[in-house]
Each structure stands twice: as structure tokens, then as C-alpha cells.
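During the reporting period the student researcher (J.K.) took over the structure-prediction task from the postdoctoral fellow and processed the backlog of single-chain submissions. One of the processed entries is reproduced below for the supervisory committee.
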Amino acid sequence: MKEIVIISGKGGTGKTSITAAFAMLGREAVVVADCDVDAADMHLLMQPDWSSSEDFYSGVIASIDQEKCLKCGKCQSICRFNAIPMINEEYVVNKLDCEGCGYCARICPADAIKMIEQNVGKFYISNTKADNKLVHARLKSGADNSGKLVAKVKKEAKLIAEKEHKEIIIVDGSPGIGCPVVSSLSGASYVVLVTEPSVSGLHDLERVYQLVKKFGIPAGCIINKADINQDVTDRIMIFLSDNSIDHLGNLPYDEDFTKAMTEGKTIVEDQESHLKNLITEMWKKIKEIN
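J.K. obtained the following C-alpha cells:
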């Protein structure tokens, strides 16, 4: 089984649109995992049926039983995060500030504080218009532990691939180099880096590749909107060559990309778009490399 992870050093490079196009080309041979749980939008292009869902619990938060509370103030005095203010003569927990360390519960003389497991989001398993399975999720506003939710999405996608004997898992990772990206890269067979020819695009490509390199995962790169700044495109090409990163191809700037997105479609569904052939060739290269 091959696990292909598509990531980018920054947002707005076209990563998800390209991933969705690969999912359409792979059709029933692939399982798709949307691991960009902080800003999940693969469903906008893949039209999932949301056939099953499950709450995701991770981390704990303090909860004060007001009937047991002695109003001694010990919890407030020891909280390093200033998460226990007094409101209307009661000590209460500010959920956004509480880090779940549990120290307040340990020192409470009345055993009035409990650490409650948190529902931080949902994950879904859906059938898509491409006749494949999509595992996706949504993190609640203000919730953390997105790295753990990514791990859950990947685990479920792998279980489906094993059960249904699918050859490839396509993973849409988060942009940047944070915990969700690290979780996305775990177990990957190949990484596709999507970038654009801007100064920030090149900088973030260099930065995210350093992370990929630490994992020892082979990588390829797609340069989106490659014709908008030829000088930076040339610099990206040099970087790819110097680091033995496969050059999977360039995509020109084309408003058909935006048009397809606004219609809820991938670019490969537009039979008249010349971008379809370019992305199809990239998908063939990825499968041949792997």
C-alpha cells in the first residue's frame, strides 16, 4: 500500500484543488484522507455523502462542582494560565485558557474539580462522486489537538484501504510545518510539495522540505501558477535539482482553476481545460515513481 501526502509550505498554493484532482483521477483505486482538519474543504470539491460520523475526544479540561466548592481560591492562585476567574462570587473555568494540566484538581481540598475529556471535533467517512471513500474531519473552533485528529483520520483511511484492498491512500495535508503536518507525514511513502513562484512560496518550500528531509521521505514538487514569475520559478527549479526533488511538472496560471472551484468541481472534470492533461500526466508520474 502506498501513502501519498500532498502538502505545501503555505496556504493558497492550490494544494487541495490538486489533491482533489488526483482523487478524481484515482477513482475507486484510492482512498482519500483530508488531513487539513483546521480548515477542511475537500468536501467542497468531492461532494461526499457524509454517510457516517463519529465524535472525536482528545484532551481534558477542568470543571468545578459549585456545590462542593469551598471558595478557598487555591485553584485560582496556582493556575499558571489564569484560567480560573471569579465571576458572580463563583470560581469558574475559562475553557479557552485552560490547558488541562490537572494541577487545580490535585490541590483542591474539597475534591470539587474534575478533569473532563473534551469533544474537540468530528470525523466522517463518506462516499464521493469519484466512487472512492473520503475520510475527513472538522475541528471545533478554538480546539487544539489537531495533530491527534489527523492521526485518527489517517488511521481510519488505512483501515479502509486494507479492508477494501486499495493500492493508494491520497492524503491532503495541512499547510506549514506544525504538528498537523508532522502527523500527516508519519508513514508516508511519497510527498508531493505544491508551491508557487513567489518569494514567500520559495521560502516556505525550503522550510517544509527540511521537515520532509528529516523524515527521509522521497519527494516531488508541482509548481502552480509557474508563469507568473519566471525568475522565482527558475530559482525553485534550481532548488529542486540541488536537493534531488522530483520535478513533477508546472501548471500555468489559469482562471479555469478558479471557475471549477466555484462550480464545486475539480479541474479534471472540465473536458475542455488544457490543465486536465497536465495534471493527468503528473498523476501518472507519481504512480510510476511509487
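The committee noted the following: The radius of gyration is 23 Å.
J.K. will present the remaining backlog at the next meeting.
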